[in-house]
Each structure stands twice: as structure tokens, then as C-alpha cells.
Fold each of these.
Amino acid sequence: MKVLSNEVYIIGAGETKFGELWDKSLRNLAVEAGLKAIENAGIYSKDVDAIYGANSLAGIINKQENIGALIADFSGLSADGIPSLRVESSTASGAAALRDAYLSIKSEEYDVVVVGGVEKMTDIHGSDILEKSSSILDREWEAFFGATPAAMAALIARKYMHDFNVDKEALSMFSVNDHLNGSKNPDAQFRNKLTLQQAMNATAVADPLNMMDCSPLSDGAAAVVLASENYMKKNKKEGVHILSSAVAEDYLSVGSRQSIYTLTSTKLAAEKAFRKAGTKRDDISFMEVHDSFSIYGLLELEDLGFAEKGKANKLVYDDIKLEGRLPVNPSGGLKAKGDPYGAVGVGQAVDAYRQLTGKAGDNQIKNARYGLLHNMAGTGASSIIHILGE
Ligand code: COA
């Protein structure tokens, strides 16, 4: 039997700024990020075996499907016949594309794969974007009755805060940390620092969550180049090792779950990711977590195994800071860096690549050795985790 032992590395990364980018189209964003990653990797188009492009909502927001072909065409790669596929898994599309590309190299099908993620959400607004961004929920059992992602997160937050006697301040502190880190990230949508007072007193969105508990709706794109160990050796390349990739599912509808404040998909994926990587939680130098709403930041710390259920509030004051024991979201996270659905997971990989190659600028974590990336679909229906390191 053939033993698959082809290790996978990130050899280049690039992204656009995240934000309201009205002067750039979906295709402009995808190509800008892809070319930056390819240039950063120091490779040529002839080296690329395949493209995996992540996107969640272009069909209903931008009325553009066939994203794989679009990206290949506008990157100038169509003439070479390079396979280019779109990967859709809601807000976890980015990590899903990263994982598919990783597996394609592991299986020895390809040596060099470009993974991209793109979303363009701010061309529509008001109830139109609210309805479309809510399509990641269960349409028949949640969205049809008026539920939005913010409303679902608020229900979860209310029950969690009640059962564990956690106050609103703990949620707000998560956003304060994101904004502090985002203020030092040139690619972040929001560069303003937040005081605890500002975070606590912002306009209500879905009680108990206010505007500063919510990620924004964003435009943006990110890309990384993955390469096999064989290719790296032959071409004398250096990169960041993908130690593990893991995915798990939960019920789509929150009401079907055993506990609404337990992210079971995150728990299961984390166990697999740590086991496959052979790392312990103490080894992790930093994490990028999918905090589309502040409450998820707390739940993720718990379900990733860094705090007991109901106790993540103990970590949000000092431990999660850039210079803390367990830095969380050095990039600014979804709250400050932004939340272009399909680009988020790839953007996390761009940030981790920069951290682990010492190129994270003002957000650099000292002696960063291992990074954990957590990308989640909607309210937690799927979680995809990658552990990167030496
Ligand atoms: N945090 C901080 N500022 C925000 C913001 C956020 N989450 N969302 C918007 N803003 C800012 C805008 O930049 C804009 O600033 P400006 O006036 O200086 O230009 C201002 O607030 C108004 O922006 P607008 O787009 O009109 O806000 P809105 O009231 O329509 O939307 C939210 C605000 C919070 C409702 C919207 O960002 C939202 O729905 N977020 C949740 C996204 C979501 O559901 N994600 C799902 C993930 S599972």
C-alpha cells in the first residue's frame, strides 16, 4: 500500500484591505489578492497546478456564479487550462477551500495550489443585505420567521449570560481587544481603538448585543499559495507547515442542538486538529477565531478547550491580549479586521503565515511558533480548524 507522506506548506500569502471597497469589483478583489500571494511566493503561473476559490454569497448578492472560472479567467490562467473550482461552505468557505487544497496536495494530485477567498457584500444595503446574509441560517426553521445571524447570536448570548452569570462587560472586552489589534493592522476595516465604555454603550442591534458586539459586513479577498514538501525541496522554498486540518458538523438549526451555547462542531474539530498535529493547547502561540459576534469569541475559547464552559470571561481582560498568555485575534478578528464571508478563513491563513514568518509588523507575537485558525459556518453548523507551525 502506498503511504501518503507529502507534507503541505504555505509558501506565499496576500490579501486586499477589508472594508467597504466600492471602487473594486468581485473579480478585481480576487485577482488582486491572488497576484499578491503568487508574487509573495516567488512562483510563476506555469507552476500553479490548481486554484480553489472560496465564496459564499456572490450568486445572490452580486448575481455572479461560476466563481472558479471567473477567477481563473481574470487571473490570466484560463488559457493554460488550470483547474479552478469554487468551494462554498457559508462563512467557513475560506477554510473549506484551504482544506480541500491541503488534501489535494496530501493525496499527491498536485504540488502547487493557489487558495483564494473573496466576498463583496457592501454593494447592497438595508433589509436586502440582511435577508441575503441571513441565508446562511436554516431558511425554513430560522430565517423564515425573521431570525438573522445577530438575532440567533443574541438568543445564545442571553441564555449563556443567564446560566453562567456572565455580565455584558466580558463580551465587550472581546471587541475591545479586537479593535486594539485591528488598530495596528493596515488591512483591517476598522482601525479605531474602542474603550470599554464605547463598547458597552453602542447602539443596540439585538439585545443584549449592540453594534460593537457585531462584525461588520465587508468586501475583501485573501489568498495563499500551498506547496508540497517535494516542490519546496526541489525549488529551495521556505514556508509555514500546515500541521493539521480538521472539520466537524453540527445541526444547522440552533434549536436542534442539545445546548445552544455549546459549539459542538468546534469541540469535535478541535480534538481532531490537536490529535493530528501532535500539539497541545499549551503549545499554541496565538489563535485567530471566528468571532462574528462577541459571544462566539467566548464560546470558542471554551469549546476549543482553553477554558471551562462559562469561564471564558476570566481570559478576556489580560490573557487574550497581544502580549498576553494566549493572544487571540492578533489581526483584529472579524469584529475589527472585517467579515467578508468567503474570504475570512483564507485571511486567517494570511495572518498566520505573516506571524509565523515574523512579518506581522506591529502585531507580531514574540516567538510565535504555533498558530490555531478557527473558521465557522454561520452559528456553528460547521467548524474547520487548521494548526500551523514548525
Ligand atoms: N462595528 C462598528 N462599526 C460599524 C459596524 C460594526 N459592526 N457596522 C457598521 N459600522 C459603521 C459603518 O462603518 C458606518 O460608519 P460611517 O458612518 O463612519 O461610515 C456606520 O457604522 C453605519 O454603517 P451601516 O452599514 O449603515 O450600518 P448598519 O446599521 O446598516 O449595520 C450592523 C450595522 C451591525 C447591523 C451590521 O454591521 C451587521 O448586520 N452586522 C452583522 C453581520 C452578520 O450578520 N454577520 C453574520 C456572521 S455569521
Amino acid sequence: MQEALTYDDILLVPKYSEILPGDADTSGRFSRRISLRLPIVSSPMDTVTEHQMAIAMALQGGLGIIHKNLSIEEQAEEVRLVKRFENGFVDNPMTVSPENSVDEAHRIHEEKGYKKIPVVDKNNKLVGLVTELDYLWPQDKDVKIAKIMIPAKRLTIVLNNVSLETANEVIRTKRLSVLCVVDKNGLLKSIVTRRDLEKNQSFPNANKDAKKHLLAGAAVGVGVDLLPRAFALSEAGADVIVIDTAHGHSKGVINAVKACKKEKRLRHIDIVAGNVATKTAVEDLIAAGADGVKIGIGPGSICTTRVVAGIGVPQASAIIEATKGKAKNKNVALIADGGIKYSGDITKALALGADCVMLGGLLAGAEESPGETEFVNGRMYKTYRGMGSLGAMNRGSKDRYGQASITDSGKFVPEGIEGRTIYRGPVEKILYQLIGGLRSGMGYLGARNIAELQKKAAFVKITAAGFTESHPHDITITKEAPNYSKN
Ligand code: IMP
């Protein structure tokens, strides 16, 4: 029987270096035609990637794959929101209702830090704006927002066909801190804030298409809606389609890749397929026409496939096997999907031969992941669940696990769990630390870029004692580090 290893079993040996972390070029690839300045992609999971996450990822030079637990139209709309994004407009901002009490505005301020909050009625029509001057020290916490808000008729408002330049000019000349953007019926569409304007955020690494729109990916399954969904996503502007299944080395997935590649309407976009863990699987998907292949059977933090089905390959070995399959066509990208716990695992995955990594758990705690934050014992958390968990399968992802024909949810055999993960703030901050760790690793190896990292990589296999030595030991951690927790 062959031995198989994962990230925790191995370490990279340092080498003579003339490269400083800041000099390293971290560019990777997600598929044949999609390159990434930041080799990190967010998973197509319903607690990880909708438009907010995809926008944040692309702005930093990565990519987000919109999950498919949505109707075709809803998913296409999520893609459109990414493609239409213009840096500076905050789409779907947090709002309160005139019927809410002041307490609600207070809560949003506490949890999210927003000071000025638009007030909308149940149809999302803008009816006013509430500011911290009105709610931070209320005499009566139960007083209704309607009583204290600035009514819409006293606000400066612009229509949603306005350019960002004009919106910024209005903010400047009228000395506003928030400008509400509405459509012709008065429905709130977005806001522009002075803070963003002052930050003058430019995103030099943003991942954009030829028309200067952010790149967006979206997932499909192999069910009957494969082609209608793929067409709708392509029309919405998706740059890559990911055939997202738990078992990519199967007739269904190979045929799905072939079917997509045959379609004229999909010829301009790349098709990525997965997941697999062997050389032949990668070869077969390449032969079917895949432009990228996702590697990972069972490494995910929410995954129970290995214990439920007894199937899987520890991730480091799976990547090594996959690189042998890639020899068939070097232009096809390998995506190391799942099991990344620390930034060092990203360095290892890329050094082993992956062209980029896909993250679920490390991004699920971000501000931009779908779902609300919740407080538990004084800490903030966000929900994170497997697409093969009961909750997610009930919402639609049962086909990922070959259980599309089961209609009674009591009969599902889940391969994932549902839980919560620590709230980690904006994606930008999370990625800063992750990429900082990768850069540091590249510095230790003297690798100028990922290709050099792969060439120079020499691994050692470590023992349980070595693993214990690697993590902080013989100490009680008293201050949280931004890039390390035991959780
Ligand atoms: P993580 O980054 O370790 O949390 O792993 C995320 C990856 O796990 C995803 O990109 C999927 O490939 C995979 N995955 C998502 N949901 C499930 C599940 O329910 N069971 C098994 N694997 C899953």
C-alpha cells in the first residue's frame, strides 16, 4: 500500500536566498486563460461566495466562484453584480426600516461600524437616513427610527446612472458623508461614502477583463440544468465556469466538460472541473477539454467524505499525483482545493505543483461571506457549512454528491457538517496575512515566482514530534496573532 501525506506531514527546507518577501511575484493561474495576481480563489459554497466575496477577491487580484445553491436567475444576477461593480459604489448596503427601534441602528453600528444608515420601507424605497447623532445616545431606546431619521426629501440623492466621478463630486461639494443612489422609482440601489473617497482606494492588482470589469467565476452541477445554467452565467458575463462535484473522475463530469466545450456559446470562457485526486483523473479531464482541474477529495475542513465513505487521498500526495497527470497539457491549471489551515499550507500547495489554491474555511469568517455575524460568549462568528451537509443539500447542492434523485431529505447521506467559524473581518485583511505568509516562504526558498518555488522546493517528511515543535508549544497564548490561531 502506498503512503500518502498531507500538509501537516511535510515542511519545505530553506535555501540560499537573495529574494526578500516583498520582491516575490505571487502570480498564479486558475485555468488556461485566467491568471491571478494573487493565487487564491474562494470556494463555490453558500456560506463563502456570493457577489460581495467575489468582488473583494477580484479586487485583491484573486477570484471568487459564485455558488450554485441559487436559482439560475439568482446566480446569474450575482455574476452581473460582480461584473457591474465599480469601485466606490457599495451595492445592497445595510439598511434599517422606519419601524425599527433606535436599538437596531445601534446594533449595526456596534457590529459593522457603519455610522450613517439608509432607512428603507418594505419595498426598499429610500425614506430617510439615520445618523449616529440621532441614535448613539437616545433618551428612549425604543423610539422608532421614523421619528429620528432625516427624511428622504431633505437628503441629497442621485440616480443610479450617475458616474462615480460625479457622485464623488456631489459628496465633495455638498459636504456629505454618505450619498444615497436610487433608481427612477426611488428604490435604494447603493451608497457612496466619503470614507471610501478619502481612502481613495485603488486596487492595482485587481483582476479585470479587457473591458475593465472584475473577473467572476460561477459553479454548475452535472444535472439537467447544466447547459441552461452555463448559458445564463455566460450571458451574465462569467469568465469561467466550474463544474463542481465531489467526484470529478466520473462519466457524468467528463461528459459535462465535453458538452460545455462543444457549445459555441461557451467557447470564449474556460471550463474547470473537479474534484479529483489521481493522475488518471487529471489526464481524463484534460482529454475531455478541461481548462483547469480541482484537486481535493476529502481535505475540506467541513468534509466528512473520508469518514463517511472511506474515500480520499491526503492532499499533498493528491497534488503530487495530479501534477503527473498535468504533464499531458501544461496549459491546464491545477487548483489545490480544501484543507488549507494556515498560510504556510498555501506555500506548500504551490510548491508541490498547484497553480493556485481554493479556500472555504479561511474565508467563511470574512465580512464579505454570505450570512450574518452572531455573538457567542462575547465572540463574533459566522456560519460555515459543507455543500454536502444536510442544510446545504436541502437548499440544492445534493447533486454535488450524486444524490439529485433523492426527494426525501431524511434519506440524504451527508458528506459535510454545519458549524460556525470565527469572524475575521474584511477579506482584504485576511488575504494580506495569507499572501504575506506565502511571500515569506518564497523568500526562504529564494524563489522569485511560483515557477521558481516549484523548481527549488525540497520537502522533508516530519514526525508527530516535529509537528508539535512546529506549532507554538509550552506556552499559553495570551494575545491573538492575526495569522495564527489553534482554531
Ligand atoms: P476548506 O477550505 O478546508 O474549508 O475546504 C473547502 C472545500 O471543501 C471546498 O472548496 C470544496 O471542494 C470542499 N467541500 C465543500 N463542501 C463540502 C462537503 O460538504 N463535503 C466535502 N467537501 C466539501
